[in-house]
Amino acid sequence: MTDDREQMAYSSQEELDRDIGVNNSRNGKKQFQFRLTERDYALFKFLLDQKFASLEALFFKFFDSRKNLTDALPKNLAVARQRLGILKRAGMIHTEKVYSEAKSLYLLSRSGWKALRNRYPDIVWGPPVLSVDFRNYEHDVRTTLIRIALERSHKAVKWYAERRIRMQGFKVKGVYGSLPESIVPDGIFLTAKGERIAVELEVSVRKKSRFKFKISEYEALICRDSPLIHKVLFVAASDAVGKDLAEIIGKRAGFLLETYLHFRGRLYAGTDDQQSEIPADNAEEDV
After folding, report:
1. 0.90 cut: is pTM over it?
2. Is pLDDT of 278 > 50?
3. Domains, the chain, ranges and CATH?
4. Cβ atoms within 10 Å of 104's Cβ, excluding its own
5. Per-residue pLDDT for 52 more than 80?
6. What is the rounded (10 degree) CA torsion for 162, 230, 42, 272?
7. If you average pLDDT over residues 226-239, what whole number do you get?
8. pLDDT tens digits, 1-49
């Protein structure tokens, strides 16, 4: 699937109609015909993996054509909004409100899932998530941004999502064994060097015994002659969590520790502010 990011917003309704394939019938009513792009299919796969995504996450992943991250963001993220509106109108995706933040989240619809399965059956590993589980909302949002930051920096060349791992497990051809049931990372990514790195986002302070148990489980995987996992990247969402993890990890080989703000800062360049710099989404603005 290729990257075909658009550089400009639609300048007229006629231009928008041409892209989505709207034709005028003999009785004057518009008929809707729809053409999917390779970027659309990549977006569907991303939503299948991550369950849902915000407007800003999808902008950073698929629509950001800025040469430098320090450049100003496009006004109102117009291109991303318009294309997502087109996909929603075509029934390929749908939205769900986050009332506490006055924004909408985008999810893959059954129709979008079928379109992806018909075009790329080998990459469709399970059914779409049709509603947001808000119990894990903050954790899922942060995991998605971490993935985007790693992929944009080319540190991650392939991503195995937590939901896929939970459904299918994680095995590697030619490597003995699989992940134990006690370990379900928030993602596993493959580097250009062929390393498999598990990602663990830790949002809240836990008993140190729980951290120690998780680290010991991973250590058993890393220390094999033919390791299933080469390294583990722990991402701390707060200073308190980072302090506890740093104390436990110490100088253990194969364990990396970074802050969530480090990854967020790669997308929201020049700020460590937790608040989004992007205007709140409004589903009523969908085309």
Report:
1. no
2. no
3. 1-132 (1.10.10.10), 134-287 (3.40.1560)
4. 23
5. yes
6. 80
7. 95
8. 544 443 334 444 454 445 555 455 555 555 567 789 999 999 999 999 9
Task: Please check whether residue 245 is in contact with residue 234, taking contact to mean a CB–CB distance below 8 angstroms.
Answer: yes
Report the candidate in 82, 76, 41, 46 with the shortest Cα–Cα distance to residue 61: 46
Question: Which residue type does 85 have?
Answer: G
pLDDT band at 276 (very low <50, low <70, confident <90, very high): very low
> Which element (helix H / strand E) includes 192?
none
* Location of structure tokens 């709140």: 280
Q: Which residues of 198-227 are buried (b: 16+ CB within 10 A; e: fewer)?
A: bbbbbbeeeeeeebeebbeebeebbeeeeb
How far, in whole angstroms, is CA 47 from its chain's centroid?
Answer: 7
Q: 3-class SS at 94?
A: strand
pLDDT tens-digit readout, 105-162: 999 999 999 999 999 999 999 999 999 999 999 999 999 999 999 999 999 999 999 9
Conformation bin of residue 91: beta by default, left when phi > 0, alpha when psi is -120 to 50: left
- Per-residue pLDDT for 220 more than 60? yes
CA 63 – CA 106 distance, rounded (Å): 15
CA distances from 141 to 27, 58, 173, 203 (A): 46, 11, 31, 12
136: left (phi over 0), alpha (psi -120 to 50) or beta: alpha
What is the 8-class DSSP label of residue 29? -
Residue type, 16: L
Strand 22-24 versus strand 30-32 pairing type: antiparallel
Residue type, 43: L
Which ranges of the chain does DSSP label H, i.e. alpha helix? 13-20, 38-50, 55-58, 78-89, 110-119, 137-152, 162-168, 208-222, 239-249, 260-267
C-alpha dihedral, 206 to 212 to 215 to 217, nearest 10°: -110
